[in-house]
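Section 5: illustrative case.
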């Protein structure tokens, strides 16, 4: 089941910019940790929202977005060990 993000692209870009200003390159790790935490507590809406922010952090990269790639991994889908 695909859960929609509560954060639109514009808001995600704003959050990504603020986190980058605060954490620099570590912003990616921060967002990934938040996405993992949301998933671990069963908050699918927050998980989807953090993945949208992760996409915004990597908006200039070609190919699949990092969030799309992470969403396919067992740790992010909840289907892994």
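Designed sequence:
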């Amino acid at each position: 089941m695909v859960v929609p993000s509560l954060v639109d692209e514009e808001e995600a870009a704003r959050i990504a910019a603020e986190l980058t200003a605060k954490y620099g390159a570590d912003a990616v790790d921060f967002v990934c940790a938040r996405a993992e935490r949301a998933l671990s507590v069963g908050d699918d809406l927050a998980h989807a929202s953090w993945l949208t922010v992760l996409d915004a952090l990597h908006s200039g990269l070609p190919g699949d977005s990092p969030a799309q790639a992470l969403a396919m991994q067992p740790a992010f889908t909840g289907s892994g060990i």
